[in-house]
Amino acid sequence: MRLVLPRNFRFEEKGQNMNGKQSYPPDPASFARMNTAEIRKVFLVQDLFAAGCIRLVHTAVDRAVIGSAVPTGGNLGLEAPAEFASEYFTQRRELGVINIGGDGLVRVDGSHYRLAHRGGLYIGRGSRRVEFMSGNPQTPALFYLVSYPAHASHPTKPIGMSEIESTNHGSAQTANRRTINKYIYSPVVETSQLTMGLTDLEEGSVWNTMPVHRHPRRTEIYLYFDLAPQAVVFHYLGEPSETRHIVVRNRQVVLAPGWSIHAGSGTARYSFIWAMGGENREFSDMDAVAMEDLA
User: Is residue 42 in some structural domain?
Assistant: First the structure.
């Protein structure tokens, strides 16, 4: 597929096969036969953040779009790729934004929202013009974007630090002490299907989401960040009886369809942004997997 894109804008489809032709993400049976290179090509997003441009990646799994905006030389406007067949990006979509870089500003239809480091913003369907700016181009904002189709319009809303629900989980004994910060979730932010938040692991803890679970009714997407240069995370996916792993580095993303488990263990502490979209917005909606069922 040839994509005609505006300047400072890149859009690609995720889920291509090894010959570069468009295909849908694999079903569990096909996944079990894939090698490491094939798994990485379909489920791992690398080089998402690039100075001075917007990058978007589309997946057929729940029609999710992930992306980034890194303004370094002026405003970056979010435009609808031709593949959307829409007048503007959020004509039929909603959008979540979390800034993991320097101070930034998001302008939505003329209204300005300042996003400091780790600030969040929900942008509702029908927002015609979305622009991203950095407070200081030398230490630019790193806006992480997640979008799903929306079937209703909800107000654009910044997520202040006082509104984020933070809960502590795990223990030092199981090396998974972590804080889960819920940004975009009901009832704080009304959405069509998007749920989004950020998890921090404590020093000495390396595991997230163990014991594992699945979300048969929705996708989950992980952006790993705050990894040291030589650190990696082993992200686990697949059916409980056919697990595989992907080696993930700083600011890389893993896609997890509803049939797959999703968990990770790192060589050092890290943080990750999780985003979900599908039939159910309830944060606790998950199907637990017993440890003895993993293979």
Answer: no
